[in-house]
Amino acid sequence: MPDFRSDTVTKPTPEMRRAMAEAEVGDDVFGEDPTVNRLQEVAAWRVRKEAGLFFPTGTMANQVAIKCCTEPGDEILLERRSHIMNYELAAFAVISGVQARAVEGERGIIRVPALARELRPKSYLFSGPSLICLEDTTNMTGGTCYPLAVLREIRAFATENGIPVHLDGARLFNAAVAQKVEAFEIAREADSVMISLSKGLAAPAGSVLCGTVDFIEKARKWRKLLGGGMRQSGVLAAAGLVGLQTMVDRLAEDHENARVLAAGLAGTRFRCEVPETNIVIVDVRETGRSSDQIAVLLEKAGIRCVAADTARIRLVTHCDVDRAAAEQAAQALAGLKL
Ligand code: TLP
Fold first, then answer.
1. Is the backbone peptide bond immediately before 137 cis, with ω within 30 degrees of 0?
2. Rounded to the nearest whole angstrom, what is the distance from the C-alpha of residue 292 to the centroid of ligand 1?
3. Whose CA is nearest to atom 19 of ligand 1?
4. Top mutation candidate among 10, 60, 83, 314 for ligand 1, by most atoms within 8 Å of CB
5. What are the start and end residues of each CATH 3.40.640.10 domain in the chain?
6. Tens of pLDDT, residues 306-315
7. Above 90 in pLDDT, residue 121?
8. pLDDT in tens, 228-284
9. Is 174 in the pocket of ligand 1 (CB under 6 A)?
């Protein structure tokens, strides 16, 4: 059954499996896994940061980034519908003791005026803003990409106010491919960046957090504290390296298939914007059904998706669903008996 629930469902490619079987490994807590070290170097180079650190998940990498940049009682600024805000179980409050201040974006894209409205002046009355978190591509707001000019404006605003920027780049390479730029041109506007290997790049697990050498040294301590110090993790890093080498350029195909899917919904009761990357958010309100109900009906019609919120479902294209599956998904939705 074509599975559009997420690009996290992608399976490792045959080349990844071979690389995993043959990976040279060591104890990474001693810093002795050559494959992990290589992945960290390659990932850091791709985003032109000084250093990288391999994490089991993107969630842990995001949370460690927040921990490294904040003190308990601080405030972090982030988009209202972002992953850190909604899908990480308020870990920022638990681990870092910080409060989140939600900024309203346009289809998930924050702009400086909205950020400025939420930035409270330095005063004994207010908790101090200490980090801006951006998500590129945005997830639940439809795989939208930050225009580079907007990122530059945010960066200038952040610098002016002495606030670092962390980029949740779980799908950074989708943004780079869609915008026909190199990942580092996006990452340059952030102090730290997290990239995921286990989504469109199809590796079985892992994310890399990148930033300055000092930041990564701090992050290494917090990763260990949270139980993220892995041992012969080169078997996972090997797959991630293959992902970075072989799976980035092909993301354009996923983006095309997302557009095919969206185009197939024209003239139906399902509303969606033209997708910029691989995420299609479909507004189901005109059907009079909830997104959960539509997801159940769609599964019965042979297509898997998830609810993004009560009014919208999300379909994500990836290397394990082809153009024919995208067409099938649109036809299945259009053909639902409601
Ligand atoms: N996103 C998953 C779910 O958790 C919602 C998905 O299916 O899209 N940042 C962003 C923008 C993400 O989309 C995700 C995962 C993460 C962080 C967390 O990564 P993992 O799952 O590796 O902890």
1. yes
2. 20
3. 58
4. 83
5. 11-245
6. 999 999 999 9
7. no
8. 999 999 999 999 999 999 999 999 999 999 999 999 999 999 999 999 999 999 999
9. no
Topology, domain 11-245? Aspartate Aminotransferase; domain 2 (3.40.640)
**Strand 207-211 and strand 279-283: pairing?**
unpaired
Question: Does the beta carbon of 135 lie inside 6 Å of ligand 1?
Answer: yes
10 Å Cβ neighbour count for 278? 31
Q: In what order do the strands lie in the sheet with 99-103?
A: 51-55, 207-211, 192-196, 165-169, 129-135, 75-79, 99-103
122 pLDDT exceeds 90? no
pLDDT tens-place string over residues 137-170? 999 999 999 999 999 999 999 999 999 999 999 9
The Cα–Cα gap between 245 and 265 comes to 34
Average pLDDT, the chain: 98
Q: Outline which parts of the chain fall under CATH 3.90.1150.10.
A: 251-334
Q: Does the Cβ of 127 fall within 6 Å of ligand 1?
A: no
Q: Quick one: how far is CA 69 from the chain centroid?
A: 19
Mutate to test the pocket of ligand 1, among 55, 87, 314 (most ligand atoms within 8 A of CB): 87
- Report the topology of domain 251-334: Aspartate Aminotransferase, domain 1 (3.90.1150)
Residue nearest to atom 7 of ligand 1 (CA): 6
Q: In this model, does residue 123 exceed pLDDT 90?
A: no
How far is ligand 1, taken at its centre, from the CA of residue 80, in Å?
15
